[in-house]
Predict the structure.
Amino acid sequence: MTKQPRTRKRRPILTVVTILVGLVLGSVAIHRLVPPPLTFLMVTRAVEGEGLSYRWKPLDDISPRLVEAVIAAEDARFCSHRGFDLEAIEKALRTNEKGGRLRGGSTISQQTAKNVFLWPGRDWVRKGFEAGYTVLIETLWGKRRVMEVYLNVAEWAPGVYGAEAAARHWFGKSAADLSPREAARLAAILPSPRRYDAASPGPYIRRRAARVQAAMGTVRADGLAACVLG
């Protein structure tokens, strides 16, 4: 019995890989123009009975103060890195090794990739996919689109996703009308939006929001949001 040539054996594998790569690139390309309908997290929370409030708004209809606030709170080097903040990652690793409070080094770009394309979790397989998607959205979308998607899919309360739904849930107004203080409070609860209250915050969130609001001035003065608002 003659053996099949290696190239023939590899063809099915190459076909599957090509299809998968095409699907990944296609999904990223589509969401460069089309808002994500739902995310894995939204569906999971809804199935668990938390409801679903998700209202997409173009970036131009979201207060610039919220852009400044999330950059100040989550990713000060958003406009200067290419998806990964190596300095923040190294700092997080050193803190975790010393037994300090567990912290991450994820950028806004990484969070966006995770929220839009991947399932919740912390396993290494998901982190690997997250890195790949981060490179793709940074390359194919650009900073302004990354920020627009991030602000629209981030979780801001149980069952509440996106800046518009968050602004109405916590403050009874549109995301376009958020004040600097309200924007700072929304950014302040982002690490644990299911735990904290932006409308009537406790002492910890009030202090954190005050620091964020002060840092927003630095973001404006130093042009740290220029890639989005410039």
In short: The two ends are 68 Å apart (CA to CA). The chain has a mean pLDDT of 90. The first helix runs from residue 6 to 30.
